[in-house]
Design a protein that fits this description.
Strand 2, helix 6 and strand 3 form a beta-alpha-beta unit. The chain folds into 2 domains: 2-15 and 74-125 and 141-239, 3-Layer(aba) Sandwich (Rossmann fold), CATH 3.40.50; 19-70, no CATH class. It starts with a strand and ends with a helix. It contains 10 helices and 8 strands. It is of the alpha/beta class. Strands 3-2-1-6-7-8 form a 6-stranded parallel beta sheet. GO terms for molecular function: metal ion binding; phosphatase activity.
Length: 241
Amino acid sequence: MKFLLVFDFDHTIIDENSDTWIVKCAPERKLPNGLRNSYQPGHWTEYMGRVFVYLGDNGVKEDEMKRTMTTIPFTAGMKDLLGFIGENKELFDCIIVSDSNTVFIDWILKAADFHKVFDEVFTNPAAFSSTGYLTVQHLHAHHCAKCPKNLCKRKVLKEFLDKQLERGVSYTQIVYIGDGGNDLCPVTFLKKDDIAMPRQGYTLEKKISQLAQSLSPVQCSVLVWSSAIDILSYLKLRIKE
C-alpha cells in the first residue's frame, strides 16, 4: 500500500502566492504600473522574468530576497501534515507540481526543514545570473490548450507516473491537493480510486463543482479542505483501513 501525494505550492502549502510576495522587496513594496500591466494571460513566467529584472535593476540582492521569502506563512495545519508525512515516508511518495520556481520553493522548504518530505519538485527552473539577477525559465513545452504555456500539470503527473511504473512502483491512490485553475487539468486525469482535494473557496473547488453541474463530473472522489488538518485526518483514516 503506497500513496502518491501531489501538492500545489502557492495557496496550498504556503498561504500566499510566492511570486507576488517577492514584491515586498521592491522600492515602496510595489511595482510600477507599466510593469504590473504588462502581464498577458498564459504568460506569467515571462511577466515574472520582467519583475526579477526590475528588482535586480533596483539593487535587490539574493540574501534580501531569501529573507523575505522565508517569512511566508504556511497554510493552517500544513506543518502538522508535512511532519506526519515525513514520519511515514514508507507509505507516501510526495511531489510538488507548481507554477512558482525552484529557487523560491527550495528556500521556503529548507528554511522550515521540510525539503526531505518531498521526493521531487516540478516547477519553473530559476537561478541567479553572474550579475546577481534572478532568472526563470519554462518548466517544459506542451500541447495542452487548457494550460499556461510554461506548465501543464497533467503532463507532469502522467510522465512521473509512467517513470514510476517503469521502476515497478504503482500507487494504491493518488491524492491531489491544490487550489488553482491550473490544478483542474491534472484532476481530470485522476481515476475513480483517486481523490482530489481542492482548497475551500478557491478556483479549483469552483471549477470542479461547475463540471459536476454541467453533468461531466471528475472521475475521482472530491474532498474539500480548509485546513491541512482535514487532509491529515483523511490520511490517518486511510492508513488505519
